[in-house]
Recover the amino acids of this structure.
């Protein structure tokens, strides 16, 4: 099924060949990843945004600070928002974007295979950031708001061999479909196992489970067969 996408782009091109090529390459993969694309150099009205699944912002549209202050960023928290054509080295901007509710960052330096994989992930509603950025965000923002590490370590949950395998894959950043494909089981089966894992570990979400895994499974655990 195709999803509607709006691409907010700059008015002028030709100033930097590499950036223009990166822009054209990124736009060329959107239809093959399930998007019907509309482009524009002016922030669209609410009527357009209400029918938009994913809002892509060309990083060259305006300054980094201005991008994070666009109405679409702070007025539409439920909208899937992505920024592309970002320098890979601009780590502080990646982190600030994640804090502002951006769901994905794509680099000028990304190869075609990586771009396709990332666009497919954001099309499915998942975030697309480097592990470094996600770890930094979790450590700084999410862990203090959830359970304390001590509380996570106190869990006496006993996981089955399959549940342990799925927990490891979640800790590696795998999504349900990826887990299902690698273990040759259905997505619904994965979801059932994940529910059981959450119940046994007393974790409420994947963020808590990753922390639980990092601290609990660094020690030998009993596994049921």
């Amino acid at each position: 099924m195709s999803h509607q996408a709006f691409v907010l782009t700059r008015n002028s091109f030709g100033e930097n060949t590499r950036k223009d090529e990166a822009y054209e390459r990124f736009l060329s993969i959107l239809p093959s990843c399930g998007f019907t694309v509309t482009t524009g150099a002016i922030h669209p009205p609410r009527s357009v945004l209400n029918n938009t699944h994913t809002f892509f912002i060309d990083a060259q549209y305006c300054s980094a600070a201005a991008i994070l202050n666009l109405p679409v960023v702070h007025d539409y928290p439920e909208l899937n928002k992505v920024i592309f054509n970002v320098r890979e080295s601009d780590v502080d901007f990646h982190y600030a974007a994640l804090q502002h509710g951006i769901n994905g960052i794509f680099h000028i330096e990304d190869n075609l295979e990586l771009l396709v994989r990332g666009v497919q992930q954001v099309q499915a509603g998942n975030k697309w950031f480097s592990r470094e950025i996600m770890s930094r965000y979790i450590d700084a923002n999410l862990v203090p708001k959830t359970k304390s590490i001590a509380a996570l370590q106190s869990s006496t949950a006993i996981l089955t061999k399959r549940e342990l395998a799925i927990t490891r894959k979640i800790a590696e950043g795998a999504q349900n479909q990826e887990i299902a494909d690698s273990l040759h089981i259905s997505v619904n089966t994965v979801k059932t196992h994940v529910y059981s894992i959450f119940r046994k570990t007393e974790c409420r979400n994947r963020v808590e489970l990753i922390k639980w895994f990092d601290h609990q499974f660094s020690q030998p655990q009993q596994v049921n067969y």
Summary: The chain has two domains: 3-140, 146-224.
